[in-house]
Design goal:
Elements: H1 3-45, H2 50-112, E1 117-119, H3 140-162, E2 167-169, H4 170-176, H5 179-192
Antiparallel strand pairs: 1-2
């Protein structure tokens, strides 16, 4: 997730917290005012003297305050958890997208740059790429295409590491692994994400 998006999300979260704080403060003050207005009637019907009246009102106001601020705390906690979840989804989506873009770019430039071989160490990807899949919204065929793509990259890396210098011929990659057929599918998925 870019810093601008994360900064905007944090700013929006702070604004929501400020709105929640003002709203709950207003509710609290309105409730106190209502209690102030009806307190003489409550204490009159309950036949309380001045000492008991202040104890009753203190308990009532304290309980009400605790309840309102407990609800406020729960709302803030739930809002923050939602914010964290959105941030995590954005992070995983970015991780998978970056890997797909990098590998696609590297493989598309392979024959056109005049490279006759590819070194296994050049195919950098996260070995836990599959953990990012649950955070992206793709249909079944696109998901299968992404899984097949990373499987293909892993096979290329294994083939390259079989050679003593860790390289594999570019023509061999294109023909054996049918890169020309897979690459357009992956590029379309990258555009979707």
């Amino acid at each position: 997730m870019s810093m601008k998006i994360k900064s905007d999300m944090t700013k929006n979260l702070c604004i929501r917290y400020l709105v929640y704080s003002v709203l709950f403060l207003l509710i609290y003050l309105i409730a106190l005012h209502i209690i102030y207005l009806i307190a003489p009637y409550i204490t009159y019907f309950m036949h309380l003297n001045n000492e008991d009246q202040s104890g009753f009102l203190g308990t009532f106001i304290g309980g009400m305050s605790a309840g309102i601020f407990a609800i406020y705390g729960v709302i803030l906690t739930l809002d923050y958890q939602r914010f964290k979840q959105e941030s995590e989804i954005g992070f995983h989506k970015k991780m998978l997208l970056t890997q797909l873009k990098f590998i696609c770019y590297f493989i598309t430039k392979l024959p056109s740059k005049g490279h006759d071989s590819l070194y296994g160490g050049k195919l950098v990807y996260d070995p836990d790429w599959h953990k990012h899949l649950q955070y992206i919204d793709l249909d079944e065929t696109d998901l299968k295409t992404v899984v097949d793509w990373f499987d293909l990259i892993h096979k290329i890396e294994i083939e390259a590491n079989k050679n003593p210098d860790g390289s594999i011929a570019a023509d061999y990659i294109i023909k054996k692994f049918d890169i020309d057929k897979q690459l357009p599918k992956i590029e379309k998925i990258v555009e979707k994400l």
